[in-house]
Amino acid sequence: MKKLVGEHIQTLKPYVPGKPLEELQRELGVDDPIKLASNENPLGPSPRAVEAMGAVLKSNHFYPDGASYRMREAIAEAHGVSREEVLTGNGSNEVLTMAVRTFCRSGSDVALMPEYSFAAYGIVSQAQDVEVRKVPVKEGFVNDLDGLLDAVDERTKIVFLANPNNPTGTSVSGTDLRRFLERLPDDVVALVDEAYHEYVRAEAYESALEMRDAHERLIVTRTFSKVYGLAGVRAGYGIAPAEMVGFMDRIREPFNSNMMAQVCVPAALSDREFIERSVTVNEEGRRALEEGLAGLADRGVSWTPSETNFLLVKLPVEARPVYDAMLRLGVIVRPMAGYGLPEHLRISLAEAVHMERCLGALERALDQVEGGR
Length: 373
Ligand SMILES: Cc1ncc(COP(=O)(O)O)c(C=O)c1O
What we know:
Number of strands: 13
CATH topology of the largest domain: Aspartate Aminotransferase, domain 2
Shape: globular
Order of helices and strands: HHEHHEHEHEHEHEEEHHHEEHEEEH
Strand content: 15-25%
Distance between the termini: 43 Å
Strand order of the largest sheet: 2-8-7-6-5-3-4
Largest sheet: 7 strands, mixed
Structural class: alpha/beta
Helix content: 25-40%
CATH superfamily of the largest domain: Type I PLP-dependent aspartate aminotransferase-like (Major domain)
CATH architecture of the largest domain: 3-Layer(aba) Sandwich
Bound molecules: pyridoxal-5'-phosphate
């Protein structure tokens, strides 16, 4: 196969998702496990979206609208942009892929990303034989925008920036982001990923959608997988100048947004009450988890303040055995060794009662791991 498969595919490490509940039940026979591993909405989907999907179940023998007309229209309306400035994807992940495939040349171009950021940026770039360069972060896991600018050279074609960032949960200010976008060379695409936008509390934060005048080649992505509770539907989008959308649209898979996604997105966007409730539950979860973690500070546990629906938690020991012990207690979190953070776990926020259960499991797991040393 060496002759057949390019070096960039041979060395590609595939994405490792959070462990599904069903898999844990199958492997360990754990009753009533909880999943806090993939930053999903603990409340489930927006009820309006569920209703909309129910109404088209019997129409699934038809292909969906290849142009996703209503879905794009609803997104465009929500943001006050034109339909031609909206590109929908099979999850926002697919928008990342389409951006790299459209704007980067295989074998010569470079993609930049912060050191501890969403793994998909590296994967979709390497899959297209685009070299990935990672830029170190600042103190407290804050993304270094000046560092990213300094790393730009004539081969750089795209810069990925998640704001707020996964897996660190940190954000950059609107002022800093605008300055970054203004200084980025005109021929470099800025992809600002706002998957966790709705959870942000920091006053200094501003969406890049307010800065479309600052950089012509700007793509802002959002997703329905987080606060809208629709990760299973695979629906996301990018907003960019119509000319850029037009080119990305050329390489888009036919029918990439499925029928469920197309009908539930307008409904989910209109369900403001559900979004507010989801954010409230997230804040309750944050308080419960932070309080519990503060109680473990004397054992060497700490966390990074987060603007998202998860916390990056640092342990006094290697995280993998703690993660394994928590699995046996029916709690799925996410080990971060694959991100270069072997002593960290990422824990999704959920209802306070689930946070209590997670804290109990974490404490017992630490006892087991530290006791066994
Ligand atoms: C920063 C970031 N962007 C994008 C995604 C992927 O979202 P989607 O489900 O829309 O593909 C995630 C999912 O965890 C994420 O953390």
